[in-house]
Amino acid sequence: MIVKLTLAGCLLVSGLGMVAPLAIAASGADTCVATPTEPLPADCQPPTDPDAQTGINTGTVAGELAGADEAVARALRLVGGHGYYQLCARLAANIWGRPRSGYFSAAEQWRHMVATGNAHRGDRRPPVGALVFWETGGPYGHVAVYVGNGRVVSNDINDRVPGEGGVYLVDVGLIESKWGATYLGWAPPIYSTN
Predict the structure, then answer these.
(1) CA distances, 160 to each of 73, 129, 156 (Å)
(2) Would the CA dihedral through 16, 20, 21, 22 be positive or negative?
(3) Residue among 1, 3, 46, 2 at smallest CA distance from 22
(4) What burial class does residue 52 get, using C-beta atoms within 10 Å of its C-beta: 0-12 exposed, 13-18 middle, 19+ buried?
């Protein structure tokens, strides 16, 4: 109960930009929380078995992405926010501390990752923090950030009002089942330095 109250307080204050990022990791039903000056508890390890339903890795894999802990903490702070209607590439970039993606769409970003050899096509074992991509049947595609435990932080997926642009923590499979999207694969968060 104390952890939940402390976490809720930090999320509220961080929404105003007054708290440094938290390091957050899930272990089963528990959530481990530490400030940037405290290490995660030693017994807080993400599970490593793939989720049977989605086939998506539920923990980290070899080659963990540098900065993923900070990106996941930022992603979780954005959950519940609004203003990202059809701006999935911008949401993913914001999660990684960038003001914008530098791409016209998620589809363009995916094509660039493929062309530069950074795409992991069809690989359903993304590391925590990876950008995961889908073909949506339209010209723009979709990208979300994988936060572990078979979940992503995504926009629009649970909006009750068109144009709401909500930010949600959802199971990876929801993007496919609700939108009929086709999973393409994952890529590391590579953005232009311009």
Answers:
(1) 25, 27, 9
(2) negative
(3) 3
(4) exposed
Tell me: the pLDDT tens digits for 114-170?
999 999 999 999 999 999 999 999 999 999 999 999 999 999 999 999 899 999 999
Residue pair 126/65 in contact (Cβ under 8 Å)? The answer is: no
Query: Do 71 and 131 belong to one domain?
Result: yes
Q: How many domains are there within the chain? A: 2
Question: Helix H segments across the chain?
Answer: 2-15, 68-78, 88-95, 106-115, 172-179
Range of the domain at 27: 1-45
Contact assessment for residue 15 and residue 9, using Cβ atoms and an 8 Å cutoff: no
CATH number reported for the structural domain that contains residue 136 in this entry: 3.90.1720.10
Looking at 27, 45, 63, the residue that finishes a domain is: 45
